[in-house]
TrEMBL record:
CC annotations in GO: endoplasmic reticulum membrane
Major location (coarse): endoplasmic reticulum
BP GO annotations: protein folding in endoplasmic reticulum
Locations listed in the record: Endoplasmic reticulum membrane
Record-level Gene Ontology MF annotations: FAD binding; protein-disulfide reductase activity; thiol oxidase activity
Co-factor(s): FAD
The UniProt record lists the keyword Transport: yes
Full protein name: Endoplasmic reticulum oxidoreduction 1
One Pfam entry name: ERO1
Similarity comment: Belongs to the EROs family.
Amino acid sequence: MVYKKYCVVLLIFALAIVQAVGYDTELFETVACDSTACFDALHGALGDCSCNVDTIDYFNNVKIFPRIQSLVSKDYFRFYKVNLKKECPFWADDSRCAMKYCHIKTCSKESVPGFENDYENELEEEPPALKYSQEAQTPCNSDADHDPALGYLNMTLSVASQFEIAKWKAYDDSVGNFCDCDDKDAEAEYVDLSLNPERYTGYKGTSAHRIWRSIYEENCFRPKVNPYKSFPYVLSSDLGNMCLEKRVFYRAVSGLHTSINIHLCSKYLLSEKKLGFAAPPEGEWGPNLAEFQRRFDPSQTFGEGPNWLKNLYFVYLLEMRALAKAGPYLEREDYFTGNPVEDEETRDAIRNMLGVIYTFPDHFNESSMFNGGSPAAKLKQEFRDHFWNISRIMDCVGCDKCKLWGKLQTQGLGTALKILFSGQWDSFDEEAEKGRIVLRHKAHKRLQRTEIVALFNAFARLSNSIRELENFRNMLSSHTDGQKDVFSGAAGDIKRERCTSGVSKPSLWS
């Protein structure tokens, strides 16, 4: 009898150990808390500017969102010329990892400025040549999620569209270009953005992780080595140890990353194509609340999720300031497509939206950056070089649809940075109360068609992300039942509600 009692006690103890170990091993696979924790801190001042989140929420959702979404549906903004065939300049091309609806970008650690001088006690880094060698790469064709069909990019253009686009190019060439872009490449092609919406593609694993890890660890300015090997981001508590310019760079990249993650969560593949006339031909797509929580809930992201969401508002503010600063130039563009009626409608829509943007009370103030002579000029060059590297990393993305939207949004942000910091748009005649400048020598400040298309579409994606946050906020508020895990035990399947207090491994744009 005593022996049996000992056996029971031992069995109970063993089950307790198994359950405890289960919690520990699931630390990186926990379900997000069923709460509004993602939004609890998403209020008040943004930092590094005089604006606050609530002001942007109202301004975007009520005034900007409907205007910008209507604008980018116009033919001028619907067709984007891009070269998706460039080889990755940093490591072996892994386009074989292309999957259903996907793509992203990368950057290198050696280019972090002042890294060696600021941190003399840092361990010696692995040489870049070894890091990107073939032997150092992990093959991704064995990825269980690999499905080329999901990464299919619709390149369909009607004969009429091809004819009209040829006229656009002839017109652009006649007035000259501002800078070298993908549309100069022999392999560049026009893509109809309306046929290739940005949404979840299944692109994840080694390839996607390497891209974002390279961006954050190798090309973003960093105050020190991050102690979390599986967490490549800069903790918000460390941002104060960086100067304004470096913080702006990091927050802009983080905000772009956040925006893309929100797009994937809001246009998630909820179910595959089904039989029957009522089923959507490409499957069912919609918001995935659990996925949103996994990416942004504080309990899943070292408490950083709300800060990443704030960075979305920050990069939105930065790009909106670029539109305001270049507004007089953009108001004078022709937006030529060969259709006089639509061209005039496009110009009217541009003027209408810019008129609203001018009324925003708290624009980002770029004049406080890069002041201080030679050191400031050197920092600006490093700033430019870092973003240039990130734009090149976009060619390493293994999914055509992800590469398309990654390159477009990166070019849009790069165009905004050029407007703000190149000096070509600066003027002593600036109307500070409206955030506008008097345009001079327009021919010397010309933006290429692809830059304008990227600038407005990138801003439209940020606007859409902020609008989608409102949808997720409402979903979380009305979601009272919670999420449940199913555990298998000696007594059978046990269903229990769980809100983890641990920290999960954050996603790297997967």
